[in-house]
């Protein structure tokens, strides 16, 4: 195995370079960067704190709005949110907000700051099904409001896609462990290896807790009909989980074909190259002008010399060979590879959870369900499927439950 898979791809700011970057900020009065953050974190405020070397104040600004601040600093597509709103873009380039946030949260960890505090117990308890980013944020928000929180996780470790999906070079296990430990230290109780709907029923949870949050993600990779039963084919979700769970120590093909053009596909192709697969080809339905993957993730794949062919879709598959057609041109393409990995979307598995879904999302608007004591958050709720949006949803469902239960009232 090539150890590059376990190494962070991006270098961090030093004390000198962090000050240089913070001083580039224009200190806008209207702070468009802050208005563009889904989690309502205030980049303008924490950048001002950094300029005055008030790293504690900067960390407080981040944490009070985002319990997963260290994780978002590493994986948030800032180009779509805060950096897209940065006024500095009109001069040269946006402030590296994610990089500054990472420096501050690294400082927080090294100095063992404990910013979030558990609220005075209000006598009410909440069950959360799933320990992905939205469930973790909901837990942190509710604990600060005085609720007792128990999280039920089907796997051996908490974190959901943070743990089993995002590659190690983008999000080290140490950071995931740190964030989860902070929430456990706030008072969260996590029950592992327990699948709700199988090991326990929703009725069991409703009988024991004042409210239940279903915080499940899109954990199942989609399989196209033409690839069903093909032993050479694997979904991106499965591959990324295997690589992450084994820290990259997995059997590798001599060459690989990846189908898909989102961030998950970029994670797959980049992981394959970092692990030592020499020939990696990615075939994408979208053309480059309409690419779904973030510019950052696409650039990372291109830096690893991944071959990317845009504008094609699969029409037939047999064994190691896939036939593609171009969307606009009368052109056909055949590619043979030892391993074929599909990154064509993910599905929510909500069996026996007493909630109705349609196209992988709940039918009811917002976070409520037909059952007044059951709420939903995470990928199953409408909105972007990013960590920062998961944080937004987790905060909002916690606020809705607090309003429903009346807090201390």
TrEMBL record:
The keyword Cell inner membrane does not apply. It comes from the Bacteria. It catalyses: 5,6-dihydrouracil + NAD(+) = uracil + NADH + H(+); 5,6-dihydrothymine + NAD(+) = thymine + NADH + H(+). InterPro entries: DPD_II (IPR028261), FAD/NAD-bd_sf (IPR036188), FAD/NAD-binding_dom (IPR023753), Helical_ferredxn (IPR009051). Pfam families: Fer4_20, Pyr_redox_2. The keyword Oxidoreductase applies. Keywords: Oxidoreductase. Residues 4-111 form the Dihydroprymidine dehydrogenase domain. Residues 125-394 form the FAD/NAD(P)-binding domain. Heterotetramer of 2 PreA and 2 PreT subunits. This is dihydrouracil dehydrogenase (NAD(+)). The lineage of its organism: Bacteria, Bacillati, Bacillota, Bacilli, Lactobacillales.
